[in-house]
Amino acid sequence: MASSLFLGAAFLVFAVRRCLTYLHIFQQEEYDGPRFFRWMAAARAFDKRATLPLLACWGAALAAPEHAAYAAWAAGLVLLGVAAVEDNPLRAAKKKLVLTARVKRILSVALALTAAYAVALALCPASPAALLPFWIMGVQALPVALVAANASLAPVEARIQQGFWNEAHQKLLRLAPTVVAVTGSYGKTSVKHILAHVLGCYHPTLMTPGSINTPMGISRIIREKLTDAHRFFIAEMGAYGIGSIERLCRLAPPDFAIITNVGPAHYERFKDLTTVVRAKFELAHATVARGGRVVLPAALLEYDHARDFAAANAGAVLLCAGTDVTAPATVGGEPSVRVLEAGQDLSGIHARLLYRDQEYEVRAPIHGMHHVDNVALAFAAACGVGVEPQRVVSALRSLPQIAHRLEVKPQPDGSVLIDDAYNSNPSGFASALDLLDLYRKAGRRGVLVTPGMVELGALHDSAHAELGARAAACADVLLAVAPARIPTLVESFRAAAGPDQLVVECADFAAARAWLAANIGPGDAVLLENDLPDLYEKKVRV
Questions:
Q1: CB atoms within 10 A of CB 390
Q2: What is the pLDDT of residue 533?
Q3: DSSP characters for 93-137?
Q4: What residues contact 476, with CB distance under 8 A and at least 6 apart?
Q5: Within 13 A of 332's CA, how many CA atoms are on the CB side?
Q6: C-alpha 25: how far from its chain's center?
Q7: Neighbours of 342 (CB within 10 A)
Q8: What is the pTM of this model?
Q9: Helical H runs in 385-459?
Q10: Which residue positions in the chain have pLDDT lower than 50?
Q11: What is the pLDDT of residue 534?
Q12: Distance CA 76, CA 264 (A)
């Protein structure tokens, strides 16, 4: 009996630690059970670290039934040992587990179910050897317990979330700031950051921080942060399918909208770019329906839906002709912004913009040519909501770097880290390589560290092959993290590389960090291109 009770207690300690690990993923999957299970299947995230030694304990008990009690003691020690080395997602992750009230409720119910199971096994009169398979089943069933707990709480959560939604919506209507909503396949967080800085230089402005772009995330910011002093509220809006942005627009009705672009960043989720356009333009339709205006990149007019929208709502559209397109200077008489010339040096980006037939020289101390288009979109939006163009130019000169998005960080050892950890799209990747090449031309050795991109679907191999060849022209060393998932990038880099260029295959980021610690010095520039929270923070050690 003592050995069974010890095993039960050890199992509960293990369950607490492991449930936090799985909750970290479950939270990122928006508490969607089927999506969570699909991730588990794709990542093969079924427990092995505890299960394999527990199977060994079971085998030993079967081989020597007279010592089965010792096997139970050993199994308990195994579970405590695994719990002791389990990663803590509250601290040891870039995108940490957030202990919201909902997470606590799910965890409490899941642990209650688990505890009932453990008590039943611990008090069962059967021999420890006969019960060990059931303890192993309990280990494997912890993700199921979380999903079951969440399902049982669904009516409660629906009421709570509706209450939060109503409170945020009513507060927004009562305080009535100008709501600027930003969406796009990528670039939306950067445009939000740039615009919030420009508007914030002259008017109290609140933006949703980081990558918060869901109904509950936006509701929380409105409820906790919005005050009657704020003139502008900038909300990033994410699309997880058709209807996602429409729901967000009901929560925070937009007075002004920016669609940054449409691209393959979420190709795997939407399957085709036509569907992506429809999803993103829910924001545009909601904005013009309430008399607002929309900033659109001219490049979007290649899509029928965007072109039809711009033609039908010419007076509400501010078209922005960026670095890669030639577009008319106006749409239906409404002024727009055109990038006439652009470049970058080690101090940042610069551009010559045409707005209302007048040219403006713009400089911003951020890096990456893709940010020229982001700055142009923010320029158009700021002017569109009433800021004088020259004041926009002045504000951009003091623009802070955008965290983890081509953020240049000089290191104490004299090397330079180019932190592009939050990027995961072909355009941003290419822009990051151009910046690395700029440092190479200034005499530094260029080192690219990347596990590649995610959510490209059928474009995964071709996009990585193209970027591998481009990387060979911009980097001296490629540290390919988890190279088995990006074989075309590695192969195309090798094919285009010269004899002095090096490919280092790293099983994980720990191996890459070890190589960097041993090999990087004052003459190096290191580009960290996407550390894949979507892949590596979801690659739990089980």
A1: 10
A2: 42
A3: -SSPPP--HHHHHHHHHHHHHHHHHHHHHHH--S-HHHHHHHHHH
A4: 440, 445, 446, 447, 500, 501, 502
A5: 14
A6: 13
A7: 19
A8: 0.78
A9: 389-396, 426-441
A10: 327-335, 533-540
A11: 38
A12: 48
